[in-house]
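If it is no trouble, might I ask you for a protein's amino acid sequence along with its backbone structure tokens?
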Amino acid sequence: MSERADLWRAAAEAARAGTAAALATVARRRGSLPMASDAKLLVGRDGSRIGTIGGGCLEADVTAQALEVIAMGKPSLVRHTLNADVAGDLGLSCGGTVELFLEPVIHGEQAVMLYEAVAKAIDTRLRGTVITALDWATGPQKALRAGDEVSKIGDWHGSAGSAATVDEANGLFIEPLLRVPRLILFGAGHVGCEIARAAAATDFHVVIVDDRDEFANRERFPSVAEVVVQNLPSVLDTLTLDSDDYVIACTRGHALDATVIQRTAASPARYVGMLGSRRKREVIWKALSNAGVPRSALERVKVPIGEDIGADTPGEIGIAVMAELIRLRRLGS
């Protein structure tokens, strides 16, 4: 399950229990800053934290401001500027400015339903938008639009765009729910297990596919989104790939790897890779070319996979592979 979804579920629990808490979300950022553009933090009344907006002194300051928002009972936009001295303390080469939207967690059944709906949308990779009124003078106003469903708190009449922004003209904070990238791992062996572990820890929607239930099971893969125990060709028959999908063939044999590559090389998937050596690639590519797979499709498949860091053990290979996928996800290269 996604860590971001877990944060929203924690907000739902606070709403259900009537526990005071606040959400802090990056609204605008400029320069080199120690947080992701979609960073989010849940602060409890006791100062406890779930998620992160960068750590260090910045997070301590935001926590204090979140406690003030809890006391006031209304949202606030706060700005932080990291000058060269502060940036140096955080290990950055330069500073920047970040604006955060802070809001109290709303209590009551409507809020519980909305927060849980956001978590479900994230877990099921459903695109949507969370819209929150900046002014709560007449009470909280918040809405989720995910697919055809709308959940709302208050007398909601707002509209939303597709990008995270503070819409000051309409008094709205607009937060898109982007789909978590999906990593489909064909093969639940030792290397597949380590790749899955690292991928789940870096917020990929991980799907494990293997036809051996002694390998593909929840005991070995407690943190992945889906474990599919099924014949690989049958899975490929019903699999639809999109531009935010990543595919890796790391099965127990050349023939199975070849089947995965044959069926996915020409797909819209953002990344298709195969575990193995250049020699293995040459053997399989020759067979696939003879079977009619276009050379242009095979040329986009990455073999060997992972950053070249001299990885040897399954754990090291898992880290090297995820370094490559994170680079592609964040930098697009």
Q: What stands out?
A: Residues 314-331 form the longest helix (18 residues). The mean pLDDT is 91.
